Amino acid sequence: MKVVGAMTQAADNRNSSNPSPVPRSGVAPASRRPQMPLKPQDAMSNGGPAGTERPIVQAEAFSLYYGSKAGVKDITMDIYPRAVTAIIGPSGCGKSTFLRSINRMNDLIPHTHAEGLLRVDGVNVYDRHVNLVNLRQQVGMVFQKPNPFAKSIYDNIAYGPRLQGIRRRARLDEIVEECLRAAALWGEVKDNLKGSALALSGGQQQRLCIARTLATRPNILLMDEPCSALDPLATAKIEDLIGELKASYTIVIVTHNMQQAARVSDRTAFFCLGELVEYGSTAQVFTNPRCKDTEDYITGRFG
Amino acid sequence: MSLRLRLRGLWNKGFTGLSVLAVVLLGAALLIVLAPMLYRGFQAVVFVETVEFRKMEFWELDRGDEEALQAEVAAIQAAREPVYALLDRFSRGIDVERQIDQARDVYRRYGEKLRAEQTPREAYTEKRARAKALRDALTDAYETADATAAREHLQVVLSQADEPWVRDTMLREYVQMARDYGEVIATIDLGRRQEYAQALDEVKAALRKLLGPRPREEVPALAEDRYGATRWDLVQRDVEHFLYDEQWVQEQPGEPLVRKWVPRTDPAQFGGTALEPLFGMVETHLEEMLRPRWRFYWQYFIDGSTPGHFFGGVGPEVLGTLLLTLCAMLFAVPLGIVSAAYLVECGGDHRMVRIIRTCINTLAGVPSIVFGLFGLAFFVLIVGRPCVLAASLTLGLLVLPVIIRASEEAIRAVPETYKEASLALGAGRFRTFVRVILPAALPGILTGIILSVSRAAGETAPILFTGAVFYGDVPRSLFGQTPALSYGSYGIATGDRIGMEMPHQQYGMVMTLILLVLLLNLAAIAIRHRVQKRLRG
Amino acid sequence: MALDAVSKDVSMPLPSEGNAGGLARPLLLTPGQDLKGYMLGHLGRAVLLAITCVSVVAVLLMFVFIIGKARHFFIVSDVVGSLSRVREFLTSTQWYPEAEHAEFGALALIVGSFYVTTVALVLAVPVGLLAAMFLSDIAPFGVRSFFKPVIEMLAAIPSVAYGFFAVLVVAPWLQDTFGFATGVNVWNAGLLLAVMAVPTIISVAEDALSAVGRERREASYGLGATRAETLLKVVMPAARSGIVAAVLLGMMRAIGETMVVWMAAGMAGQIPTPWWDLSQSVRPITATIAQEMGETPQGSPHFYSLFALGLLLLLVTFVLNLVSEHFLSRVRGGGVR
User: Fold this and answer.
1) According to the CATH classification, is domain B309-536 in 3.90.226.10?
2) Spatial contact of B281 and B82, defined as CB atoms under 8 Å apart
3) Of C6, C26, C34, Cβ closest to residue A241
C-alpha cells in the first residue's frame, strides 16, 4: 500500500489532530493559477487515456450491494485529476450509488457491502484500515438538496477547517472569504456573515454548501446533482464555478441534465441499471457514442 | 333505496355528533376538574384579610410593621371594649359561682386590710360582722332561683350603698355587684340560669372564634387558636355561629332531623335579656373590630406554615418539589440523552438493542407505587435512610423512559442530510453528533425534559416512603427529608379540621401544584410549536 | 439581485497538496498508527452501551429486589406451607395483616382493583376511541390544534390533584345527587381513572388510525361509503392492533394508579355485596400498599406481604406491557394487520 503525505510541517498546522503531519500549500505555483474558464471543447487537452497524469480514482470490478440487491455492478473506470467527469443515466441506474461509494457515504445505509476495488490515490477506500475522517476531508461532497447547518454562514464554512484544527481567527476569516469568493457568494453575504445560513435562498444555500466543501481543501469534489434544486440563473453560476474549479480540483458530477454534462465535463460515463455502459471523452460520447443504449438515452428515446 | 341512503346519512351524522360529544366531554372534564380547585385555591392568595391575619403574619411569619400593627391593635381594642364589657356584665350575672367566690374574696381582703390597719379588737369584729352580713345577703341573692327573693336580698345590700363604711371602702364592690346583678335579674328568668350558662358558653366560644382570645388571656398552645377569624369569608361564617344557634329539629316524625338556625335574639334564646343588644352591637361594629382589607398574598408561595398548614403558605413544599425534581433530572437527563444517542446512532437491530428497548418500555409501564417500593427496598437501603437523595433517585428512574423516548424522537427528527453534510466534511461520528445533531435536536430534548419535570413534580407514590414528609422545612443537605407539593396535597386533603376551618389552605396547595404543572406544560407546548413552525417554514 | 461573477483576481482556495500531486493526508491508518482514534472509538462505544444498559440494570434490580422481599412472605417452612400461602393470598378475602392471627387474603384487594379498572375502561374506551377518530379524521386542523393541548393537559394533571378533586368535589356531589351512603366508592374512583386513562388511549389509538394511511380510506370513500362507515368498517379493523394496544395501555394506567384510588375508592377491604352495587367502597391493591406501608415496621410479615402485592402488580403490568408491545409492533411494522 502506498503511503502518501510529505513530512513537512507548515506554520499554520500547529493544532492538527491528525497524527501524521500534513503539508499545507501556501500560494499556488504559477502553473496552477486559475485560468479563464475553459470551454467544454477544450477539455480534450486534459485527461483522457493519453493524459499526462495518473488516474486519481480507479474502480476495478467494483460492486456495491444494498442487502442482496446490487446498486452498481462490476464498474471499471478511471477518473483523472483536474478534470470534470460526468456520470449520466436514467433514474435508479446507480450513479449516485457509485459517487457516494467514493467517499464511503454509503456506509450510512445499513446492510451495504462492497466487492471489488475502488481506489482513491492508489488506496482502496473499502480497506479495513481506511481512516474515514482523512478520506472525507480530502474527498468532498456537494449534495442534491442544499443542507447548510443551522448555524451562521461563517460557522458553516469554518466548520471543516475547525475540524482540522485551525483555530486562529485571522486564518479562519481568510478561509471563509476565500471560499465564499470562490463560490461567487461573497458579495451577497459579506455584510452578514453571522446571519443564519437557513435564511438564504436555495441557490445561495447550495453555493454556501460548495464553499463549505471547498474550505476543507479537498482534492476531489463529488457533486450529486448539485443544480437539480436550483433555478437556471443559479445553475449557470454553478456551472461557471465548476469550470473555474477544475483547474485545481478533480470533479465528478452526477447529473440528470445531459446538456449540463455536455457543457461542463471533459469525460462522461453512462450508467444503466447499475452497470457502466460507456465511458469516454464527452465529445466522443455525445457525438459518436459506441453503444446503442447510450445513443438511445442521449437522443431521448428512454430515461 | 333512498330510505336506506337517508338512514346511512343519519347514522353518519349521529356518529359525527357522538365523536364531537366525546371531545367536548373531555374539554368539559378538564374545566370541571380544574375550575373549582383553581378558583378556590386562588382564594388562598387573593382575599379579604382582617387584622387577625396581620397579627398572625407578624407573630407567626415575622412580617409586618410593628408600629402600624400596635396602632391597629389599640384601635380594635377600643372598638371591642364595649362588646366585652357588655358580655362581662351579663356573664357576671350568670356565672354565679364566680360571683360568690368574688364576694368571699372581697370579704377576705377587707378583713386583711382591717388587720393591716391594726384596727382595735371591737371595731374589727363589728366591721367584719357588718361586711359579712352584706356578703351573705349578696350570696343569698346569687344562690336563689326566685327573682323576688333575690331582689330582696339585693335590696339589703343596696340600702347600705350610701353608708360611709360601704361607700368609702372596698365594700363598695358589693354595691356594684348588687347593681349589676339587679340589672341582670330584671331581664332573665332565674329558673333558666343553667340554660343561659350553657348558651353563654357557646356565645363566648363563638366570639373567641371571631375575635380571638381576649387581650389578657393566656396564649393558647396551638397557633390556630391564637387568632380570631383571619379572613372576611371566615368572619362571615363565624358570625353566623355567633348570631344564630344551630339546632337540629325533627319536623315530621320518622323523618331525618332538619337543621334550623335560631337567632340568639329570639325570646327563647337571649331575647329580652341584658345580653340582647350584644348581638346587634357586634353585627354593626364588625368592621371596626376586624378592619378588613383586600390582600394579594403572593407570599403564599414562599412562606412557611404553622404546624398542620393552618396558617401560612406553601413555600417549603414548593422548594421541596423543586429540589426533588432538580436532583431527579441531574440523574436522569444525562443518562437519558446518552441512551437515546446510543440507540439512534449505534443502534441497529441486534438482540441487545431489542432487550434494551423492552426494558425501557417496561420501566415506562411500572406503576408508581412499585417504584416507591423499589426505592424503599433499594435506594433507601443503599443511601441508608429515607431522604431527598433516595427520593430523587427513585423519581429519576421513573422519568428516565420519558426522557429517553423524547430525546430519541428529537434526535431522529434531525434530517439525515445534516448528518451527511457533517460526515462528508470529515467530521467523525462523535463530533457530528455533538456539534451538529445535538444542537438541532435540543428543542425537542428540552421539551421532553420539561415534561419530565412536570411529571416528577406531580408524582406522590414514589416519594411516600423514600423521603417525603408532610410538614417541615426544606432540609439543608440531601440526606434530610423534605416536604413536597404532591405529598402535601394528599395529606392536607385528608385533614378534617383544616377542611372545616381553612379549606382555602387545602385548595391553595393543590392549586400551586396544578399551576406549576400547567406552566411547565405550556412552556413545552410553546417550544414545540416554535420548532414545528421553524421546520415547516 | 446581481450575482457575483466568479472572481478571477483572488486566489482560489486550493486543495492541500501532497507529494507528486497526490493526496496530502494518508488514507490508510492501521490501528497501530492511529491508536488513539481507534481506542477512543471502541472505548467510546462501549461506554455508551454501558450507560444505556442502566435501564436494563434498573429493571433487573427492580425484579430482584421486589421478588427478594416478596419471597420472605411466600416462602415459609416448606413447599406445602408456601403453596397454601399463595393460595390464601389469591383466594381469601380476609386481609387482616395486623391481627393476632394475621390473615393475608388479597382477593378483596384484587377484586377492588378489578372493579375500578373495569369501570374506568368501560367509560374511557368508547370516549377515547371516539375522540381519537374525531381527532384523526373528522376535526379540521384548527380544531385539532385546539383539542390536542386539552388532551395533553388532562394527561398532565397530577394524580394527587385528581384525587383531591375526587374527595372534595365529587364525593359530596355523588352523595347529594344519588343519595349514596358514601361518596368515595367504585363510581368515584372509576370515573376519575377513566379521565386519566383517556389521554393514553387517545394518543395510541390516534397513532394507529393515522398509520392506516390515506389509500384505504380513499378506496372506501371512492366506493361511496360515508365517513362513519369508512371509519367503522375499514379504518378501525385495519388499525385493530393499535387499538388493542391502546386499550391495554389504558388498562395499565388504570391498574397502576395509586393516589386517585387511595383517596377516592373508600378503602373498605371487601367485595361489594351485591356484586353490582358500585356505590360501595373498595380497596385496590395500589392504595393498600400506599396506606399500609407507612405504618408497618420493616421486616415484619406485613411488610413483606406488601411487597408481595407489589410483585403482583409488577408482574401484571409487565405482562400487559409485553402484550401491548407485541400489538404495537404490528402497527409500526408497516402493515396494520
Assistant:
1) no
2) yes
3) C6
